[in-house]
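Quarterly update from the structural biology core.
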Amino acid sequence: MKIRVICYSKKKKMENFCEIIANAQDCKWDKLPLAYPCDKERLTVFVVSAPHPDLLRMCGTMTKDRTANVAFLVDGKESSVRPYIEAVKEAGANVFDNIMYVKTGILPFIGGVSAEEAAAVEKWIAELVEKSK
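Predicted structure, tokenized:
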């Protein structure tokens, strides 16, 4: 299955979540701006912690040709991710409802992920992959 993990965060812990997902699903992760665009992905996972116009623009390009399904792992509240979800839906890709919300703290250089957090992320991504088949 073709999976793409895209990080838009300056927080080390969010990058560590990307690494956990990539290792669990044997895929790679990338930061915005991307080296190459999404193309025929089965699942695209956005790992985000800060609102940004570039991310909103990218979400607006998530057509079914680029990705069938989109999921979000968010450091923040539901209101912070709502514009991204709407942009993806308007572009035409499916957005999974089970958004994973995490708390990373205010210090961007602290990146420790507990065993419980890692297990929760691994379980979450496995469920999404199963739904994507």
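The chain has four helices and six strands.
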